[in-house]
From TrEMBL:
<dbReference type="Pfam" id="PF25876">
    <property type="entry name" value="HH_MFP_RND"/>
</dbReference>
<dbReference type="InterPro" id="IPR058649">
    <property type="entry name" value="CzcB_C"/>
</dbReference>
<dbReference type="Pfam" id="PF25975">
    <property type="entry name" value="CzcB_C"/>
</dbReference>
<protein>
    <submittedName>
        <fullName>Efflux RND transporter periplasmic adaptor subunit</fullName>
    </submittedName>
</protein>
<dbReference type="GO" id="GO:0015562">
    <property type="term" value="F:efflux transmembrane transporter activity"/>
</dbReference>
<dbReference type="GO" id="GO:1990281">
    <property type="term" value="C:efflux pump complex"/>
</dbReference>
<dbReference type="Pfam" id="PF25917">
    <property type="entry name" value="BSH_RND"/>
</dbReference>
<feature type="domain" description="Multidrug resistance protein MdtA-like barrel-sandwich hybrid">
    <location>
        <begin position="145"/>
        <end position="281"/>
    </location>
</feature>
<comment type="similarity">
    <text>Belongs to the membrane fusion protein (MFP) (TC 8.A.1) family.</text>
</comment>
<dbReference type="InterPro" id="IPR058625">
    <property type="entry name" value="MdtA-like_BSH"/>
</dbReference>
<feature type="domain" description="CzcB-like C-terminal circularly permuted SH3-like">
    <location>
        <begin position="390"/>
        <end position="430"/>
    </location>
</feature>
<feature type="domain" description="Multidrug resistance protein MdtA-like alpha-helical hairpin">
    <location>
        <begin position="188"/>
        <end position="245"/>
    </location>
</feature>
<dbReference type="InterPro" id="IPR006143">
    <property type="entry name" value="RND_pump_MFP"/>
</dbReference>
<dbReference type="InterPro" id="IPR058624">
    <property type="entry name" value="MdtA-like_HH"/>
</dbReference>
Length: 445
């Protein structure tokens, strides 16, 4: 409530309370006057009025009558209505004073909350930097080492130990194929080996007896040669049986599919119960520690790109950038006659392309530095807002962010050359989407 003026001896209560009390007293005095009480100081004594029963009974002129009652009622209505209007006016004035203060307080709280929830946009100062002329093309990521692991044994797949996306170690079991047929083949070959060993032992004994008899002259040279030939046949059958056991053992080992080296499983095109046959792909595997970007460039640009001093590889999905030096840029000495392009490979070391987003098959933008760097007005590529054929940036002003059209030049990595529309030293929003929101505020980086 408002505090009224005060003076020595004046009421020290709030001014609104004093006014309300006076209004109520005035209303009561008027009501009592018309109801039989006089409007003296504080209405402390009665005086005859139109409604006083005592006056009406003692005054012969004002004795009760139908006409006097109607006249008295007619006189009371405007007075009562005026008193009620006065009281309602004071009440509404009091409520309005408190309500207005409440509305103003609510508006202040809403403004504070709006200020606290206003989007904060990081900004940067426009400046000059060494800017190199570069050209860019679309490309894809490839794994330097990748493999398709196929089945080497025939049988039903009984168990899969990994799924797509799993990391595996060299020698880790990936799948198991029904090994019953391979085990039976191994048992058969082992039996044949035992038979061949027995036959070989008999042939060796026969050959020894034949030699002894030949030396004593009891048999001819032809009989001795026949015993020697039988020995050689037995030895060959033993070697054949041993080779069969080796093949059966390898076939049994092939029923368990293992990882050839450390890597990540990228695809599993089979399910448990499928028939595995030799050569059928079971897993796709790649080594994530080393990637390369591959782009196909026009044959006319291959020579310039091969001599580039630096290259950048930017992921289209996240905007992450990996930088490599010229030694890692390789032009494949073979052109495609149909498209007139040549394959360019950019080897990405682990430090330049690390993270979960750098995986084979991702689309990238490959840029090559073709000329030496020069001073130019540059801004981060993330600060640009594209609307149709127009390009703009949000500039920080006293009244907030203002969208301004600019003309851009070449792009080098994550920096874009500004030809016109900005001045050195101006501050721009690094996130144009948030800067366009209502109430956005700058946040210095």
């Amino acid at each position: 409530m408002r505090a009224g003026p005060s003076s020595p001896g004046a009421d020290s209560r709030p001014w609104d309370a004093v006014l309300l009390r006076r209004g109520i007293l005035t209303f009561r005095c008027r009501l009592k006057y018309y109801g039989g009480y006089t409007e003296s100081a504080g209405c402390r004594h009665r005086s005859p009025g139109w409604n006083s029963q005592e006056t009406q009974m003692n005054d012969p002129i004002r004795k009760p009558s139908a006409a006097n009652a109607i006249a008295a009622a007619t006189c009371r209505r405007p007075a009562v209505a005026a008193a009620l209007a006065l009281l309602l006016g004071v009440a509404f004035w009091m409520v309005g004073s408190g309500g207005l203060a409440g509305v103003r307080s609510a508006e202040a709280r809403a403004a504070a909350e709006s200020l606290a929830q206003a989007p904060r946009v990081p900004v940067a100062t426009v400046g000059r930097d060494r800017f190199a002329q570069a050209e860019s093309w679309d490309g894809t990521l490839q794994a330097v080492r990748e493999a398709t692991i196929g089945a080497q044994a025939q049988g039903r797949i009984v168990k899969l130990h990994v799924q797509a996306g799993d990391k595996v170690k060299a020698g880790q079991t990936l799948a198991e194929i029904d090994a019953r047929e391979a085990a039976l083949a191994l048992s058969r070959d082992q039996a044949q080996l035992g038979e061949s060993q027995a036959t070989l032992a008999e042939a060796r004994a026969a050959h020894a007896r034949s030699r002894e008899l030949f030396e004593k002259g009891f048999i001819s040279k032809a009989a001795l040669d026949q015993a020697a030939a039988a020995l050689k046949v037995a030895e060959a059958r033993q070697r054949q049986a041993q080779a069969g056991i080796g093949l059966s053992s390898v076939a049994t080992d092939h029923t368990v599919v293992r990882a050839p080296w450390d890597g990540v499983v990228t695809a599993v095109p089979v399910q448990v119960g499928d028939l595995a046959t030799p050569g059928r792909p079971l897993f796709e595997l790649h080594a994530p520690d080393k990637l390369r970007a591959v782009a196909f460039l026009p044959n006319s640009r291959v020579a310039d790109v091969a001599a580039a001093s630096r290259a950048w590889v930017r992921l289209d999905a996240t905007g992450q950038v990996g930088q490599v030096e010229s030694a890692q840029i390789v032009a494949i000495p073979s052109a495609d006659p149909g498209s007139g392009t040549t394959e360019i490979r950019i080897e990405l070391p682990g430090g330049a392309a690390s993270g979960a987003d750098w995986v084979p098959g991702r689309h990238v933008r490959v840029a090559f530095e073709l000329k030496s760097a020069q001073q130019a007005l540059v801004v981060p590529a993330t600060s640009l807002l594209f609307r149709g054929e127009l390009v703009g940036v949000y500039v920080v002003t006293d009244s907030g962010f203002v969208l301004r059209a600019v003309r851009v030049g070449q792009r080098s990595g994550e920096s874009v050359e500004i030809l016109s529309g900005l001045r050195e030293g101006e501050r721009i929003a690094l996130d144009p989407v948030r800067a366009g929101l209502k109430g956005a505020m700058s946040e210095a980086r």
